[in-house]
Amino acid sequence: NMIKVAVVGGEGIGPEVTAQSRRILGWFATRRGVPMALREAQYGLIPYLATGKVLPEDTANAMDEADAILWGATGGPETKEVPAEARKAGGLLSLRQKYDLYANLRPIRANPALSESSPLKARILKDVDFVIIRELTSGIYFGEPRGIEKLPDGQRRGFNTEQYTTSQVRRVARSAFELARTRRGKVCSVDKANVLETSVLWREEVTALRAEEFRDVELSHMYVDNAAMQIVRDPAQFDVMVTGNIFGDILSDCAAMASGSLGMLPSASLGPVDRYGRRKALYEPVHGSAPDIAGRGIANPLGSIQSVIMMLRMTLNRPEDADLLEKAVDLALANGARTADIAEAGMRKLSTKEMGDAVLAA
Ligand code: NAI
Ligand code: MG
C-alpha cells in the first residue's frame, strides 16, 4: 500500500532545502523500497501570480489526500506582493487548523560532531536527546474572550483567555505517552499548576490518563519556570516533554539552542488518529523562509532532511531507515560537512546541494 507524500517547498529557502530532502526521500523509495507516492506541489507567490491563489486547487488536493506533507517554508518580502486576504485564505495557520494538527513535536538532539566543537557544549550537551510536544491548537493563543477594551477611567485593558478542555489535554498527553513508549519511557508534563486553573486541570487529566492506560510510562510534573532552568542546566534528564501552547512555544525555542543552529531543527505536527489508525502529519524544518539568504543556495538543508527522519519513523513506519538516515547525517557532520551557519573558522562551507550530496554519500 502506497503512502501518499505531498512535497511543498513554498517560498524563500523553502524550495531550496526541500529539494535536498526530496532527493533523500527519492533515495529511500528507490534504494530501500520504501513504498511512497510522491507528489510535488507549489505554494506561495509563484502560484499566486499564475492562478491568483497562494494555495492553488492542485496543491490543496495534494495536501488533502496526503498521509504526510513535507513542508518547506512560507513568508518573506515577496509576501507584500500578495494581498492579505489571498494570503490568509491558504495560510499555514489555517492549514494547521484545517487538519487539526494539535501535537507539535520538536526533537532536540545534540549532534556529537557539533557538540564536540565547543568545550562548553561538549560538557553540557552530551547525551541530550529529547522531544518537546507542544499543544498547537488551543490555549491562550486561541481562547475567547480576547481583546483590548477601554476602561471608564480612560485606561485601556488588554486580555486573553487561557483555556483547555479534558479532551484537548488528553489527546496531546496520549501522543506523549505513545511516543515515550518508543523511546526511553519517560514523560515530563510541564505546567504552572501552582497558579493557573488550566494547569490544575492539565495535571489532573495527564495523571488520570497515565493511571488508566500508560502505567508502564514514568510520569513526572514540572513547573514551567523550573523547566526553563532545567533545560539549560541539565537537558539530558528529559525524554519526552509535553506542555501547552504558550509554554511549548517558549521552551522549544530555548531548547532549540541545544542543537546548535536553527537550520538543523526538524519538526512534526500530528493530527487526530482516524478509524484506520492513520494520522495526518506535516513535517517541516523549524526555520522560516530566511529571506536574507534566499536564492543563494547556501541554506542548511539538515532541518528539512531531519524532518524526513521523523517522517520515516512516524508515517512511513520505517524505524530502521530512520536510524539509517540519522546515522548518515551524523556521519556527514563527523566528516566535516558544514554549511555556512554551522561552519567554524577554516572549514570549507558547503552549498545546500553539496550538503545534500554529503548526506547521500554517507
Ligand atoms: P527564519 O527562520 O526565516 O530566519 C532566521 C535567521 O536564521 C535568518 O538569519 C536566517 O538566515 C537563518 N536561517 C534560517 N534557516 C536557516 C537555514 N536552513 N540555514 C541557514 N540559516 C538559516 O526566521 P525569520 O527571519 O524570523 O522569518 C522569515 C520569514 O519566515 C517570515 O516571513 C516568517 O513569517 C516566516 N516563517 C515561516 C515559517 C514556516 O513556514 N513554518 C516558520 C517561521 C518563520
Ligand atoms: Mg516560536
From TrEMBL:
Catalysed conversion reaction: (2R,3S)-3-isopropylmalate + NAD(+) = 4-methyl-2-oxopentanoate + CO2 + NADH
Important for catalysis (site feature) positions: Y141, K192
Taxon lineage: Bacteria, Pseudomonadati, Pseudomonadota, Alphaproteobacteria, Hyphomicrobiales
Keywords for this protein: Amino-acid biosynthesis, Branched-chain amino acid biosynthesis, Cytoplasm, Leucine biosynthesis, Magnesium, Manganese, Metal-binding, NAD, Oxidoreductase
Record: residues binding NAD(+): G288, S289, A290, P291, D292, I293, A294, G295, R296, G297, I298, A299, N300
InterPro entries (alphabetical): IsoCit/isopropylmalate_DH_CS, IsoPropMal-DH-like_dom, Isopropylmalate_DH
HAMAP family: LeuB_type1
EC number: 1.1.1.85
One GO cellular component term: cytosol
Residues where substrate binds: R96, R106, R134, D225
NCBIfam families, alphabetized: leuB
Magnesium among keywords: yes
Stretches assigned to the Isopropylmalate dehydrogenase-like domain: 4-359
Binding sites annotated in the UniProt record for Mg(2+): D225, D249, D253
UniProt GO BP: L-leucine biosynthetic process
Cofactor(s) named in the record: Mn(2+); Mg(2+)
Subunit structure: Homodimer.
Enzyme class: oxidoreductase
Pathway terms, separated by semicolons: Amino-acid biosynthesis; L-leucine biosynthesis; L-leucine from 3-methyl-2-oxobutanoate: step 3/4
GO MF terms, alphabetically ordered: 3-isopropylmalate dehydrogenase activity; magnesium ion binding; NAD binding
Location in the cell: Cytoplasm
The family this protein is said to belong to: Belongs to the isocitrate and isopropylmalate dehydrogenases family. LeuB type 1 subfamily.
Major site of localization recorded for this protein: cytoplasm
Coiled-coil parts of chain: none
Pfam families tied to this protein: Iso_dh
Species, as recorded: Bradyrhizobium erythrophlei
Co-factor: note: Binds 1 Mg(2+) or Mn(2+) ion per subunit.
Protein name per UniProt: 3-isopropylmalate dehydrogenase
